[in-house]
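Sat 14:20. Reprocessing the chain from the morning session after the first attempt stalled halfway. Input below, unchanged.
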Amino acid sequence: MLKFLSLQNFRSYKKSSFEFKNSVIIIGPNTAGKSNLIESIFLISAGKSFRADKDAQMVRLGNEMGRVRAKTSQEELEVVVTVGEVAGVRAQYKRFFVNGVAKRRADFVGNLPAVLFSPQDLELIGGSPGKRREFLDNVLEQTDRDYRIAHLGFTKALKQRNALLELIKETRSAGSGQAGRNADKQLEYWDSLVIRNGSVVTQKREKFINALNEAEKSVFDFRIEYDKSEISKDRLEKYYDAERSSGVTLVGPQRDDVFIYFEKDKALKSFGSRGQQRLGVLQLKLIELNYIKEKLEEAPILLLDDIFSELDEEHINLILSIIGDQQTILTTTHEEFIPAKIKGKMELIELEISK
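Finished this time. Tokens:
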């Protein structure tokens, strides 16, 4: 249960706080900050934004630090986003705290599990492969600490490896052979890290996708195919020349994708109507909710951001019917969209556009 939320210089909020006794309906016009509020809760849950390309975008314009603090049934959680110049270079970083003690993101995530459903989730079907990898990461990072550690280790090692590959590419063009040879030697260390951590990421993603395929699908039936890019010593050797010419790592989990099929072998992305794609996303989210609940033996918070803009009445009612099973935080522009029997069980928070 989320019980208290405090925002300081976060997006449109200069300084605001909210108390939660149960499930909540957040009502307000567009630009009143409803999605910003949902984003802050997701940040406390996942340690990252579902909207921002860069962390700096979460900090209120004109400020160098944004802070989100939350109290749950068990802990006090805090994320601080700092933006500024360090040694003349513009830098941004996040810090995580549990009960006032600094933590790594790997040890922060999972303290407040949450499932988010927003209009942007349609990109799971029609968007880039990165959106689908993000979905896998969000679920697995909340339910599996080993995955969090492996994914973080892989991401850091990949960044260093790509920097060295870019250096090799540049030195080849400039004819500076010695610098390129030195970078090549350093690659051996990062190769071992990306292989070790990347193999764990691939294995756990594959296991989760198998669970998705085996799960009951009462809303929309589909099959998921995992297009994995395995990483190993042999595969890195195979792409040796291509990587040094391109300056990036060409194999590994960062290039994974998943394909979603319905009616046997029809790709939902290409042949599904917009309505069918909505149902596919809804079914994925319902499975995600049950998967996290089963793995953690507790119900995650359900975050519903403006779902009324994308779903028809029948499927809105389906989502609303599961609200009583866990704490739910729902945003909408119109109070009349909420059935009376649901509204009577939830608190109301009304937001106004800041002047």
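The longest strand covers residues 76-86.
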